[in-house]
Amino acid sequence: MRRIWKQVATVAGLCLVLLPRPALSADDACAADKAKFCANLTKPLTVGKCLKEHEAQLSDACKTKVANAMAQAEMRKACKADVKKFCEGVKPGEGRIAACLKQHEGKLSAGCDAARAANRHAGG
Description:
Elements: H1 2-18, H2 31-37, H3 44-53, H4 60-78, H5 80-86, H6 96-103, H7 110-122
Helix pairs in contact: 4-7
C-alpha cells in the first residue's frame, strides 16, 4: 500500500512540474505586482500593506484594484453602525449589505453616505 501511495505522489509531483500552469487569473489584477514586490509575504494584510507601499510602481490595473479595496474598507468602517442598525439580519455577500444600505439611503449617517459616494467614485 505504501508503494502505491509513493507512486501516486511521484506522478502527482510530475504533473505539477510538467503540465502547463494556468494563466494568471483575470480576477487578480495585482498578481504580477504581488510576485514582483511582495513575493515573500503571505498574510493578506501584509501583502496589502506592501502593495500600498509600492503604489507608485504598480500596474494601472493593480492601482485601481488597490484604490477600490481601500474605498470599500473605508465604507465598511464608516457604515458599520448603519449596517448594524438597518441591516442586522441581512446575510453578508453577493451585494446584500450594499442593497440594504441603498434601501435606507435617506436614513444613513453622513459619514456612511460620504463613504458610499467615494466608493462609487472609486469604481467599487
